[in-house]
Amino acid sequence: MTAASESAANAPATVIHGEKISLLRVLGPAHVWALGVGIVLVGEFMGWNFAVGKGGALAALIACWTAGLLYTCVAMIDSEVTSTVAAAGGQYAQAKHIVGPLMAFNVGLFLVMAYTMLEAGNAITAGYLIQTVGGMAGFDAVQDKPFIVLTILFLAWLNYRGVYATLTFNLVITAIAFVSIVVLFLGVRPWSTAVLKPNEFLVGLPYGWLGVVASLHFGLWFYLGIEGTTQAAEEVRSPARALPLGTMLGMITLLIAATMTWYICVGLMPWEYLGQAITPLFDAARMTDSTFLMVFLFVGTIFSTLASANGCINDASRAWFSMGRDRYMPIWFGAVHPKYRTPFRSIVFLVPIALIFALGAPLDQVITFSILSGLLGYTFMPINMILFRRKWPLDTIKRGYVHPFHPLPAIVLFILCAVTYFAVFLGYGTQLVAMMVFYIVASAWFAFHRYKFVRRGDQFTMPWPRPRGY
């Protein structure tokens, strides 16, 4: 056997896109669940409550369940397309194969911005909580900014070292954070009125139905990021099983956690305070006068922010890596670490961007930037799903999962996205316009400059037949 043939025989079985060094297929359904829920669960610990300030407690509940319907449609669509297009980049890889290069470029940017802003918001929350608890303990000199920097740097290092350890860590701390919500729910005895007093604080709709629409903006924060499970498509052992199972179980987990969170907080705090709190669940635990619950929710809040930031680094770097590998961005970003098998350059490159926003922007602005980027990505998904079924009907290619009721989920998702744009415009119209201008300028840069570097034939890696009608 020659040296060349021996090298070929020993090459990894998971080589993708012709890369000599590929990402490793080591993840199972539990890791997919941990990635999706880990990114999102922090939304129960902070951010969602700004919806209360927009329209009152009841409006926040309506927004919670409406957003739950939106994200259920997202999860169903993603489960079908990603279990078939099993490549890193998630929705970016879907757009590349189904719609076209300009859409793929924009979707890739949507993903990177959504996850990087979410990472920054998590770091802000962790720093604020540590500063608050330090002040309660008499350590007034404790500042939040060093902890913000340490959080981002530590999690970037963990991602750099390998995906299996990263998402196993996420699995453990996400489970603990979810258990802390359940323990608080049981600790306030929801079957009695001894602690919770929702009748005193549930004041209807102080701003009418317009407030309900406005609250939908932050209602998305309960679930924003569950679509990140698709970023693990190239690193799971069985995409057809792990991705749908992990994603749908994640949505069930989040729907339960969101409803319990709303009930706890509304039953303990007036809506005027709840609507501007930074860490609502931790504040709720403080109001129970239970040291155990307060400590447990402190741990749960910290763990939820770490799990979310950790998953965001994983997802943003995979999207950026995929764009580099396909030359949508400089190919330098498409490198895989020879030892750890991670997209190490993409991980390192996105760290200073997250730090700039975490250290220099208010939390509600960071959350809004993340929501807007995510919302733009969700708007693409109905178009993508309809084109996918039209170009490759069910009998033409093998799918890992087929979502039911098509095209109803795509239609519902598109309508809910349109309503949410209006909700964002009501409170953050300037940011909405600024983000749209940014993406228009980026699209022009890609179309007139970067596209000439793209090798169109190298991007299409799925062994599919010619699309119907082409």
UniProtKB/TrEMBL annotation:
It is found in: Membrane. Signal peptide: none annotated. It comes from the Bacteria. The keyword Oxidoreductase does not apply. InterPro entries: AA-permease/SLC12A_dom (IPR004841), APC_superfamily (IPR050367). The keyword Lipid metabolism does not apply. The chain crosses the membrane at residues 30-51, 57-77, 98-118, 163-187, 207-226, 247-271, 291-313, 344-361, 367-387, 408-426, 432-448. Keywords: Membrane, Transmembrane, Transmembrane helix. Residues 38-435 form the Amino acid permease/ SLC12A domain. It is a multi-pass membrane protein. This is Ethanolamine permease. It comes from Labrys wisconsinensis. The lineage of its organism: Bacteria, Pseudomonadati, Pseudomonadota, Alphaproteobacteria, Hyphomicrobiales.
